[in-house]
Predict the 3D structure of the following.
Amino acid sequence: MSITVEERNFGLAVNPLTETREMVRCYTLKNTKGMSVSVIQLGAIIQSVVLPDGNKKVDDVCLGFDDVGGYVANRGAYIGGTLGRVANRVANGQYTVDDTTVNVTKNIQDQFQLHGGFVGFDSVIWEVVQKTAEGVVFRHESPDGHEGYPGTLTCQITYRLDSDNRLSISYEATTDRQTVVNLSNHAYFNLAGHGAGARGLAQHTVEISSSEIVETDQSQIPTGNLTLVRDTVFDLRSPVLLGDRLQQFENRLIKGYDNCYVVNGGQVLRSVVKVAKIVHPPTGRSLEVWTDQPGIQFYTANNMTTIAGKKGAQYVKHGSFCVETEKFPDAMNHPKFPSIHLEPDQTYRHEVVYWFKVEKICRCCYKK
């Protein structure tokens, strides 16, 4: 068998929905190429992604913690967590459906909701419903009224690893009442190694197949418009060196990338296509992002405070990146955006593939 799945205890945590202490289990998917991915029940979090580089040196390239306590203490960073019911921002913590205003919680300065509210999907303990030959299936039932959202939402996430170093995440959700849903994952990566910090991130190149981003105000709330990236710092249609680009944000209000890029023509597709590629030339590692979603939030850890991570590593500002596939932020308040409304007779589906590769090592085409 090319893929194995190992299971172990990861630690005790309080389930915020039941207020009981539960044992969190960790599931490690391994292939024969030396790659492994660990996911835990808490938040259906991606805890580690381990793979060799061009010199066969093995590193963990995903930020995380060695135990449950690290995730609980640093919940506000959403490290590795599943985002829901609605990833990203909800303006003023409200939206309107059929002339009825729905008020959801406002967990950011009592102004708007971010990543599902005070107790988002990253904070609950997910049930494991199946271990497959290639991965694991998590399930969570979000009760009616949780964080203000109507309807009982039943969610399922399937993590799979294959022999070609593809990590696939499949989301499904159904509801018993009209509601909204926009799921994603907030894994932070650094292809130089999870503890390589800002210097390691600066050596990455990034390319995103997008000519537009979602326009936002000073609070990063969407205005309802899209804006062209041409001739701006946001143009990533050709590979750019992150170290050079991040310097251009020094005089900006937002000190780095935290933008929803419009991909796939702003439509939900029937199958995944490649929308982004990030490369770390010194190690030869690369990450391709494939998805069927219309948006991808690219984030360079601009707000990261120094955090003690796995194996004594220090996680810092501009020391990692996120590529969060999604529908557009605050979509329920903008009719022109792809809809995130879900009816009882519908099934929400979302596919993303993180394809890790090893390319030729280059020591001459980056700045040390």
The first strand starts at residue 4 and ends at 15. The longest helix spans residues 68-73. DSSP finds three helices and 29 strands in the chain. The chain has one domain: 4-358.
